[in-house]
Write a structure and sequence with these properties.
Order of helices and strands: HEEEEEEEHH
Radius of gyration: 15 Å
Helix content: 25-40%
Strand order of the largest sheet: 1-2-3-6-7
Number of helices: 3
Number of strands: 7
């Protein structure tokens, strides 16, 4: 299909909770292919549907060469006290800050055939699962920053050439 343009912070689609996918049709199949094509570019660990302008619960991931997707994901388990973890976001280009993330995450959803999908992991996988699910809930990672770091990050956003 196509590599889609990433929506940037300030676009309302990024702060709107996404709708569940109820019917898996050709439009949803095309969305998944676009998510997969878009996440395959270098330096991308995940792309959520709202980041390409679609307010539906779906994301793709690219962790250590393992590329996939999940529809209607929900975090069902987090383990470990959330720790500050260096993080960036395609929708907030050029910024890198410590967001609070659990060391382990488990997500459950479905695939294009309606089969149950379970994704879980530690490290970058755990971080990506939490980050992308946040996008589907209308949350950009800046909201996971400490108040002090959020103030710094928002100043950087306002001074950026893309905002």
């Amino acid at each position: 299909m196509a590599v889609r343009e990433i929506r940037l912070y300030g676009d309302p689609v990024l702060t709107t909770p996404c709708a569940e996918i109820t019917d898996i049709d050709d439009g949803i199949r095309a969305l998944v292919q676009d998510l997969l094509d878009t996440v395959k570019l270098p330096g991308r660990a995940g792309v959520a549907a709202p980041q390409i302008g679609v307010s539906l619960r779906a994301f793709s991931y690219n962790i250590d060469g393992d590329i996939g997707y999940v529809l209607n994901p929900r975090i069902v388990e987090l383990r470990g006290e959330p720790q500050p973890t260096g993080e960036g976001c395609l929708s907030v280009p050029g910024l890198w800050h410590d967001a609070l993330r659990s060391e382990y995450a488990r997500v459950e959803g479905i695939d294009l055939d309606g089969n149950r999908v379970v994704l879980e992991g530690t490290g970058l996988m755990a971080q990506a699962l939490q980050h992308e699910t946040d996008h589907l809930d209308g949350m950009v990672y800046l909201r996971r920053l400490s108040p002090e770091n959020r103030k710094i990050a928002m100043k950087q956003v306002r001074e950026s050439n893309w905002f």
